[in-house]
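Q: Please design a sequence for this.
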């Protein structure tokens, strides 16, 4: 997964973080984050769709950390060979997608925002502080 995400680094200003953790009353985590400007995709990898996920809650916690002008988008990535089809949105509010669907959506979103992009070093610093 991490190697596939690296392909997104060809979009200028894109950064990828792995193994993020927030401590607190309700600890939050994400397997990966893809960041560009004020857009943060939080990613969780699953082998089987439908397994309970706390990614939506984690997205709320990361949004509180990063600030109201940062868009945090949770994506649960299901293994492409799982038997169940991907659904548009999981029961807890996080989007479900295959790895290919997720890469396409993230790439399209980041490329679409190219003209509006500006560096956000404070977002990078806050995400670095959450690395496990």
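A: Design:
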């Amino acid at each position: 997964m991490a190697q596939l995400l690296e392909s997104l680094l060809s979009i200028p200003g894109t950064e990828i973080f792995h193994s993020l953790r927030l401590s607190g009353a309700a600890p939050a985590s994400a397997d990966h984050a893809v960041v560009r400007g004020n857009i943060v995709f939080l990613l969780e990898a699953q082998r089987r769709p439908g397994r309970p996920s706390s990614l939506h809650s984690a997205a709320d916690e990361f949004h509180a950390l990063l600030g109201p002008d940062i868009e945090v988008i949770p994506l649960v990535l299901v293994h492409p060979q799982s038997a169940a089809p991907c659904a548009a949105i999981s029961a807890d509010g996080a989007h479900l997608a295959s790895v290919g669907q997720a890469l396409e959506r993230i790439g399209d979103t980041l490329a679409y925002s190219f003209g509006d992009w500006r560096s956000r070093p404070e977002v990078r610093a806050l995400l670095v502080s959450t690395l496990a």
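Q: Thanks. Anything notable?
A: The chain has one domain: 2-128. The mean pLDDT is 83.
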